[in-house]
Amino acid sequence: xxxxxxxxxxxxxxxxxxxxxxxxxxxxxxxxxxxxxxxxxxxxxxxxxxxxxxxxxxxxxxxxx
Amino acid sequence: xxxxxxxxxxxxxxxxxxxxxxxxxxxxxxxxxxxxxxxxxxxxxxxxxxxxxxxxxxxxxxxxxxxxxxxxxxxxxxxxxxxxxxxxxxxxxxxxxxxxxxxxxxxxxxxxxxxxxxxxxxxxxxxxxxxxxxxxxxxxxxxxxxxxxxxxxxxxxxxxxxxxxxxxxxxxxxxxxxxxxxxxxxxxxxxxxxxxxxxxxxxxxxxxxxxxxxxxxxxxxxxxxxxxxxxxxxxxxxxxxxxxxxxxxxxxxxxxxxxxxxxxxxxxxxxxxxxxxxxxxxxxxxxxxxxxxxxxxxxxxxxxxxxxxxxxxxxxxxxxxxxxxxxxxxxxxxxxxxxxxxxxxxxxxxxxxxxxxxxxxxxxxxxxxxxxxxxxxxxxxxxxxxxxxxxxxxxxxxxxxxxxxxxxxxxxxxxxxxxxxxxxxxxxxxxxxxxxxxxxxxxxxxxxxxxxxxxxxxxxxxxxxxxxxxxxxxxxxxxxxxxxxxxxxxxxxxxxxxxxxxxxxxxxxxxxxxxxxxxxxxxxxxxxxxxxxxxxxxxxxxxxxxxxxxxxxxxxxxxxxxxxxxxxxxxxxxxxxxxxxxxxxxxxxxxxxxxxxxxxxxxxxxxxxxxxxxxxxxxxxxxxxxxxxxxxxxxxxxxxxxxxxxxxxxxxxxxxxxxxxxx
Lengths: 65, 663
Fold this sequence. Notes:
The structure holds two protein chains of two kinds. Chain A is α+β, with helices and mostly antiparallel strands. Helices cover 23% and strands 23% of the residues of chain A. In chain A, the strands form two sheets. A two-stranded antiparallel ribbon of chain A has the order 2-3. In chain A, a hairpin with a 6-residue loop joins β4 (38-40) and β5. The longest helix of chain A is centred in the last third of the chain and has 10 residues, at 53-62. Chain B has helices spanning 37-44, 89-99, 115-127, 139-144, 151-158, 173-183, 197-205, 216-224, 228-237, 243-256, 260-276, 286-299, 301-349, 355-361, 367-396, 398-411, 420-426, 430-436, 443-456, 460-470, 474-498, 518-553, 555-569, 576-585, 587-599, 605-617, 622-632, 634-662, and strands at 2-5, 25-30, 45-53, 60-68, 71-77, 105-111, 132-137, 147-149, 161-164, 189-192, 280-282. Chains A and B meet through β1 and β3 of A and α1, β3, β4, α17 and α18 of B. β1 of chain A pairs antiparallel with β3 of chain B.
């Protein structure tokens, strides 16, 4: 499967960096509404929250991202 | 340490996978978790990567095309590994990638700050005879800690290319490319061990006549340690089916004395320490030394437990319980909802001529006056305060130290320190945490963690509201905390004896302790609050509709009547039955109902303690139960449900009887 490269995210638990989209299989297994926008670290399994789009846009607007 | 040319005589041979047809250099990034392999992979590869599961496993491997020193390369990112003797599926896959010869050059990525702990794997990789480069990553952090690494002398001692890099910034990548080109086709020097281990490896190497994917010394080391994959390779590669080699390995292992993996690890560490003698020097770095010392103190029981209690007291009790669920909820509920929002909706719907339909929107079970108020005025401030506290701890690097701190205690419950991850996440959301139990090493650990999450770990909203309810009642708070913690420990210890299976082991590299960054903390808090609100609001509104329907049809009254004898036995008023019904739909919805009752003076301190204990231990909400079914199967999930329901009411009854006898 070839796809666009994604951001590397530092895990909030183990500190290891991982690619954002590696948590997809875990998301598909979840019976919640799919709104959590967390990514599971492939090294330790910790669920890390992704930055919401509106915060990224706000950051760009004020020039801090 | 002595380093000698790798012994790879022609008769032994080393099998390698065929190079790709386009002749591109294939580079594999290997190393422990936490060392920045993925960051380096991202730097080296372009816009597109290929991700696939390693055959027969759920472990993912990433490949990408990139450039090193102007030469096109294929880069392979392997799962984290601590040793060539695998403990986990990830390590097994990483080793398999190396054994299959899928790379022309291995780049061992290490955290320069933790070189003494990482170098034993470098020695193991060098022992395999595969071309190898040692990449010292995070050199910037090492410098900040006041650590200097003498790169050239280290390279000379190891007989390897050694390159300092900062992967996240792309520093040192040109030098890394040159080093990879120089290492191509070059067999690294092999370490020689003392204390009988080196002699045993040498003797066994001489017995290996087959063709192997790694050097005879590496094969001999694995055989001595009883590695099953290596034994299978020997059976396939040796002309006599491996009879002589395996017998020699058994004799060598017996000569070394058990446990051989420990003996080998000690010798390898000793060899690494010798290689590093005088290589790492610390200058100044008083601040760094303090951080390291503080980090160690947090993970030791004598100092770590008091700190944990302080964190819980100030973070959970004072901040989440008193400030979040007290001050903020008061301000929102009284200041906003009771004064403005609810009167506004009552006014808007006052004109509706059908009272039964008006009840859907406003009134006791109205979606706007109950569902919206519960979600926005009670739950949101509580989870907001909790997520802020949680994000501060997360960003400081405290959680991995907590994992080490509780590791020994958790072992008595059949768990390892790794189970801290789902348990900690359970305080945010038990459903998400139940899903995360799949990352635990053994089935036994997964079952035990699922049970304890369902039974004794309150989710964020539940915890915050209960702390607020009990904030002015220290005795009731003590009863609740003691019973829930006691249940966690006693049920865990009994379950660990009843549930069969292996004991899990836990080891992890500790990331540095750091000062939480405001931007990170606020972003993570906002992300979690957004998720919670978007998920909880529709469910709360839906619950209100169900309650309205139940009220309208009389079904709700029937269910409440069925539960009333149970709540009466617990010494609780009849309305509490409603709270338990809410609680099965959503734990936080139920506890918000309890909060409401308490605010109206319906419950005394003892009743609050009994209701809080029962509701905390009570069956998980619908979403968590579905997740339990998905993760553990119908039989296990129903078994847990059947145990937890009477258990929760039984413990509630005991607390009620005990408190009554004390009065």
